[in-house]
Structures are given as C-alpha cells and as structure tokens.
Amino acid sequence: MDDTHKPAKGGWRDNIVLFGALAANLGIAVAKFIAAAITGSSSMLTEGVHSVVDSGNQVLLLYGQKRAKRPPDAARPFGYERELYFWSFVVAILIFAVGAGVSIYEGYLHIIDPEPLSDPFINYVVLGIATLLEGSSWLIAVREFGRTRGDTGWWQAIHESKDPPGFIVLFEDSAALIGLIVAAVGVWASHWFADPRLDGYASIVIGLILAAVAIVLARESKGLLIGERADPAVIECVRALVAARPEISSVNHVRTIHTGPQSIFVAISADFADSLTMGEGEVLIGQIEDELRAAVPQLSSIYIRPERKEDAVLSAS
C-alpha cells in the first residue's frame, strides 16, 4: 500500500482564467453601476450586481485553489484538494441566491414602480465596453478549457471535468455575455416602446439565466464534492497493467475516486498466485505501484489488496 500524496500544482498559468475573469468583472462592475446611477436602468443595475457576484466568485475559487494546495497531515491524510470542490459549490449557491435573487427582485420592483426614461446612450457605451471585456475573458476561458478537453465534446467534457474553476468561469462568462445582450434589448425596447417596465422584465430574464446556470453548476459541483470515479480509460489502464502480471490470477475490482482535479485514489483487489510467498508478494506490490505511477501520473494514492476471487465476490454481494 502507498499513501504518498502529491499536492495540487498551481501557478499563474493555472489561474490565468480566474485572473482574466476577475480583472474584467471588476472594471465592468464599476462602469455598470455608474451607468445605472445616471440612467436609472434596472437591467444595468442588475448587470452591475451580476459582475460583483462574478468577481466574488473568482476570489472564492482562487482562495479554494490556495487551500487545496496544502500538503496532507494527520487530520487529512489524503490532502485538502477536495476543498476546491466545496468552494465551487459555494460559488454556485451565491450565483443562485445573490445573482439570480437580486436580479429578479430588482426587476420586479422596476415593473411595479418604473422610473422615468433617460438618455440611453451611456448604457449602450457601457454595454459595448463590457461586451469587449467579457468577450476577452470568455475567449481565454474557451481556449484554456478547449486545451484540456481534447477531442471530447464540450458538454461531455464539462460533465466529466474534475477541475471546477475551468468550467465555472466558462459558464459565468457565457451567462454574462447573454445577460449583456438581454440588457441591451431591455434598454432599447423600453425606449422604443416608451415603456420603462420592459427594462424590469429584462432584469428578470437575466435573473432566470443566472438561476439556470447556478443549478447546472451546483449539480456538477455536488457530484465532485460527494466523490466521482476516475475516467473509465484510466480504470481500464490500471486493470490491464495489473492483470498483465503473470503472478496475478485475476483482478477482482478497481475502485477509484478523485481526491482533487489531478489526484486519484485507487483501491485494487487482486487474486495473487498461491505459490507466492509473503516477501515475494510485497516486492510484487511495489513493482506494480511503480508501473501504475509511471503509466498514470494522477494516481496519488494506491492501495493493492491481495484477495481470493471467491472472497471478493462474497464481499461485493
């Protein structure tokens, strides 16, 4: 058995998506609030809150990444990498409770008590600048996530991803760009039809978009927090390497769980040849562990249990 654990790697390159999104959202939030104060636009105020929430989310994800890099200790022998999954779940809750909640509430207030229309020019200017900044952040997120997904489809890659910051920022930026379009349509429609309530309806639509994004992110983060198996290709690779040893009669099961985005714990039950002595079995286990680490670097902890096939079947039933 090997309980060695490799702390999560990290650096500015790993966090480029988060830093890019944070810089864009901070600048956009200030501009949106100024525009909302001048024009009284509900959708602009909603978009300002949206950007503030996104900024807070990026800070939480950066904090979660920092906490996840702590080395294992007596209290957490497998390390702290799964703490990143907790903060990712918190981010999803914040998007739903604060982002969506405030947007819908602000839209409702603007509908029942609409403010007089004012010159929308500053709104269009801010929305244009925000689109450029959000678009830049979105392109960074798309490029970085695309670099890791390989040939896998986008939705499948998101569902199978074990690194929440990558797909969370991708979802946030996508929702932000859609929200900017909705806000622009709301500002235009309220002036074209001389009905300021339409701006409030746009705010509610933005809130519903954020709620939908939050639900998807919460579902993905919950799965990671509870514990997800490794990619089936990784499991089959481990099984094949162990089964290829002539001293192994059969591989009973291979069970895995992600303890972090790039860290996998694997438990292997295998039927060893009866002719092996205890000393030979210990040497064999060490050799198998070395082969597994070389073939699958993500294996941070390996547990190999010699077990007769018949006993493994009974214990699984």
From TrEMBL:
Gene Ontology biological-process entries: zinc ion transport
Name of a matching Pfam family: Cation_efflux
InterPro entries attached to this UniProt entry: Cation_efflux, Cation_efflux_CTD_sf, Cation_efflux_TM, Cation_efflux_TMD_sf, SLC30A9
Transmembrane annotation, as ranges: 16-35, 84-105, 121-141, 175-194, 200-218
Keywords: Membrane, Transmembrane, Transmembrane helix, Transport
Record flagged with keyword Transmembrane: yes
Cellular compartments annotated: Membrane
A GO molecular-function annotation: monoatomic cation transmembrane transporter activity
Span of domain Cation efflux protein transmembrane: 21-225
GO cellular component entries: membrane
Domain of life: Bacteria
Membrane topology: Multi-pass membrane protein
Protein name, UniProt field: Cation diffusion facilitator family transporter
Source organism (scientific name): Sphingomonas jatrophae
